[in-house]
Amino acid sequence: MFQRFRRTRLNTHLRSLVRETNVSVNDFIYPLFVRSGEGIKTEVTSMPGVFQMSIDEILKECDELKKLGLYSIILFGIPDVKDSIGSDSLCEHGIIASAIRAVKEKHPDMFVVTDLCFCEYTDHGHCGIIDEEKETVNNDATLEISGQQAIIHAKAGADMIAPSGMMDGIIETLRDALDGAGYENLPIMAYSTKFASGYYGPFRDVAESTPSFGDRASYQMDPANRREAISESISDELQGADILMVKPVLAYLDVVREIKDNTSLPMAVYNVSGEYAMLKLAGKHDLIDYDRVVMETMVSFKRAGADIIISYHAKEVAKMLQK
Ligand SMILES: [Zn+2]
């Protein structure tokens, strides 16, 4: 029997008591781009509010982040010299290793995640060693040097390694390499479901990592494939990943939810450069209420199942939450 009834209107206080999804400053990891030099802080034209910074500026930025309650960063290195195998990323004195060491020394309370890939470090802009004949990335050769890169990050003091290249078998390879070097407790956040996406455009400006030929479709996922997206993440779970990820996120919230329902691991989402730039530009032209849309977007990530949000909006969100 159905009965007609009227639902009580909740006041603001009660609405916040029963709210199902909350965004907190603790949800965020803030991406930082580091390059050599001193006193360098260059804004990226396609991503207002995002900078390439030298290490001294990164250290100042960490002070600012901590004041906002943000204690987690993910570092991307931009080397002076790029070559075919990304040597700078395999060197203890390379840009990424130097940055990790400097941050951990000055800010031991910062949680430093490191992006592990080769596209920022190679002259061809692909995520690994190129197989000249096939004109594509050589998966197994790349795995070998990925293990070396992970140990460089670990020795420098990284708190978590985040491989983003989508090579087959990468998680198992890194886990073995880290365990073998005595880093059994260093967690791995897998870019476990990473789509070949048009949303990465502005990032390639900031990281200077646009492929010089071809694209990354051979090792990134087809946006049309839902089941494959889930099985990619589950495969990384089976290989020993500690955290799974979906990247980009806005066009893939259904995938976030489905993976979340199929795993007990924490889930991260990467709110990518193109997603950020769209809101920035719409806000700049007064087409949207920027703060409101940013917060609504962050809530959608949490509602879809994200535990961690990697986002260029992190500082703005922290400021909004303080108000
Ligand atoms: Zn890459």
How would you explain this protein's 3D organization?
α3 runs parallel beside α4 and α8 packs parallel to α10. The longest helix has 18 residues. The model has no long low-confidence stretch (mean pLDDT 93). The chain is globular, with a radius of gyration of 20 Å. Helix content is 39%, strand content 17%. By secondary structure, the protein is α/β, with parallel strands linked by helices. The chain is built from eleven helices and twelve strands. Strands 1, 2, 3, 4, 5, 8, 9, 10, 11 and 12 form a ten-stranded mixed sheet that branches. Strands 6-7 form a two-stranded antiparallel sheet. α3 links the parallel β4 and β5. The chain has one domain: Alpha-Beta Barrel (TIM Barrel). Zinc ion binds next to loops. The site of zinc ion (ZN) has 5 residues, from loops.
Enumerate how many helices there are, as a single number: 11
CATH architecture: Alpha-Beta Barrel
CATH-defined superfamily: Aldolase class I
Silhouette? globular
Strand count, sense and closure of the main sheet?
Answer: 10 strands, mixed
Low-confidence stretches: none
> What is the CA-atom radius of gyration, in angstroms?
20 Å
User: What fraction, in percent, of the residue positions are helical?
Assistant: 25-40%
Number of domains: 1
- Straight-line distance between termini: 47 Å
Q: So what's the CATH class?
A: Alpha Beta
Beta-strand residue fraction: 15-25%
The class by helix and strand makeup works out as: alpha/beta
Care to count the β-strands?
12
Order of helices and strands: HEEEHEHEEEHEHEHHEHEHHEH
Average pLDDT over all residues = 93
- Under CATH, the topology can be stated as TIM Barrel
List bound small molecules.
zinc ion
